[in-house]
Design a protein that fits this description.
D-Maltodextrin-Binding Protein, domain 2; 3 domains; Arc Repressor Mutant, subunit A; 297 residues; 11 strands; alpha/beta
Length: 297
Amino acid sequence: MLNYHHLRLFWAVGHEETLTRASATLHLTPQTVSAQIRGLEDALGEKLFHRTGRRLVLTDAGQLVLRYADEIFSMGQELVETLRGQPSDRALRLVIGVADVVPKTIAYRLIEPALHLETPVHVVCQEGHPTELLAALSVHSVDVVISDAPIPPVVSVKAYNHHLGECGVTFMAKAGLASRLRRGFPKSLDGSPVLLPSKNAVLRGQLDRWFDANEIRPATVGEFDDSALLKVFGQAGAGFFAVPTLIAAKIAQQYTVRPIGTPDGLSEHFYAISAERRVRHPAVAAICDAARSKLFA
């Protein structure tokens, strides 16, 4: 059984990062604190710290235990305040990893339902390469990863894919170019300037295969990791580009571009990836439910 007194001492050392400072705060000797943390490590079967000079640095297991300890002792304080009749403004913390290939507007529309729970939600968004975000998920640094693809087979992470939905793809461009390419679409795209997502985006592979299947050879002007930067180039008239049909109207308004056409055989999928087979975090559950019942319905 977990000894919560030992957990409290570990929690203090984890935040102070030195045994001396934590011991002074706790009014205990360093030897006592050290011995009781060893007892916690024995009970959990995990090493929680490794020493770097005078600092105690949390291991991966230690970081996970500290996150749980933060929640446990924060909820304990909330309980005391509630019983005393004091209002509690504690927000539910949600750390989301957003793959850099996911359009910002899609990311917002997926996350936005979490902001409307009865319990206030404090959202922390971290953007990055999917592989980096999955590594963070594996050590519980993030609660969920939003991506355009399921977990790649080459990534060894114990996590679960939750398919949120799919939508078609629309080609767009600045008004003059869009008007010209609309005539004879999709063959009109052959030889025309195109702006492409980088090769780590699932959509890029789909576009390459679709162009090949339809014997279309556009002239590649640029490739972009950042979907927002790609759209800025499109706004300037540098070429046509693809966006999820779900947000085509919003993109048209925001970047003053126009639709060219929506081809058959192209679609984008979106996933929430979590460390749990069954989602328990209420904010993650809200994201999944709203996506399936409303956004992609």
